[in-house]
Structure formats: structure tokens, C-alpha cells
Amino acid sequence: MTTDATRRPWSVTLAVVLVMLGTLVAATTAAGPQGAATLVLLLVAVCFWFAVRAGRGRRTDRTAVSCLTAAILVVAAPFALDDPLYGGTTLLFATLLAVPGVVLLYRPAAEAYVRARSGDGDVEPGE
Questions:
Q1: pTM for this one?
Q2: Mean pLDDT value across residues 105-119
Q3: How far does Cα 14 stand from its chain's mean position?
């Protein structure tokens, strides 16, 4: 039986989907040397894994997916900016998807969900 406190809010599900779409779109811009493309694909795979775990209410995975999303956007930026029309637009689109997804993971509803899932919802600060 699922209580209201441990039920995943729709914003967390939306956040996971947005982060996954944003990082996937950003990965399409990194069509540079084989080593860079491999690195970006590895980062995307790890980011997907952490995004799913963050959707389950895990605090450390939420932090990891935030850092990995930023890393993917930074690594993809030089390749995207080589082609300002297609690459720049694609990177902007990826950023417009991924960043709101990360922000949704830190909204109050998501924070309450993470607290309820981790079991520290009853602990007052300073105790």
C-alpha cells in the first residue's frame, strides 16, 4: 500500500523524462572525434541510470544526475558550436529540456518525496 507521502509526484516523473530527453538531444550534437562521442554516450548512459534512481527518491542520485547533466552540456558545447545553426540550436533545445528537469527535481514536492522515501521526514533540523 502506498501512502500519499511516498507516492511519486508527477513533477518528479516529468523531471526524469525532461532530463533524459535533454541529455539525449545534447548527445546528438557531440559528433566529433570517436573518443569524445564515446565519452558523451557513456555520460548519457550513466545519467539515464541516475535519473531513474533519482525518480525513485534517492537524494545522492538526484545530485549525481544534476552534475552529469551539466557535464554533458559542457562536453557537447564545443561540438555544437562548430555548427552554429544546427548544433547551436540543438544544444539550446537540449538545455531548455534538461535544465527545467533538474530544477523540478529540487522543487518542494520532490523534496518531500525524497524525504519520505529516505525516512528522514520526521527529523527536525538540529536534532
A1: 0.81
A2: 88
A3: 11
